[in-house]
Amino acid sequence: MERLEYGFPLSTLWHYALQATHMVMRTHYGHSPVQDPTCLQAHKDWLNRTWDASKPNYAASKSPIRHSLIARILYIITYDSKKRRTWNTSRQWEPTLDELKSLVTDIAENDAADQAKKRKDDWAAHDAFFIRDALDAS
Question: Cystine design at 125: which of 9, 14, 64, 113 (Cβ 3.0–4.6 Å)?
Fold first, then answer.
């Protein structure tokens, strides 16, 4: 019979997901929902969630991240600057999975955030950075 002389600590996948979620919360939580309505603190307040943002648990922090990600993607799909869709035409639009992936990939690239910064649109740049980080953490 072999003996284990020492243990080697390894993080499991859950620990990586927890750290990724904490990273997104630390990066995009914000300080003032009045000055920056794109921050996660504003979304947390709108959803009436109460938990300590300095050390959130996994489920409590993952929920507003996913909610915010879906809301931002829906907003961008609805008001896509290339197609100029209205809400009524967006409701009738049935995209394929490839169309959605290409649209989100265009948004999540750093180039989209840089273009928004050049236009001096900090909220759009923050949206692009958040979408990129939230997709990486998923």
Answer: 113
Question: What does the block give as tokens for 13?
Answer: 């996948």
Q: Is the CA virtual torsion 55, 57, 60, 64 positive or negative?
A: positive
- Cβ neighbours of 109 (radius 10 Å): 14
Instruction: Quote the CA–CA distance of 115 and 7 in Å, as a whole number.
Output: 49
pTM of structure: 0.72
Q: What is the pLDDT of residues 26-74, one digit of tens each?
A: 888 877 777 778 888 888 888 887 777 777 788 888 888 888 888 888 7
Region label for 84, one of left (φ > 0), alpha (ψ between -120 and 50) or beta (otherwise): left
Of 44, 19, 18, 42, nearest to 126 (Cα)?
42
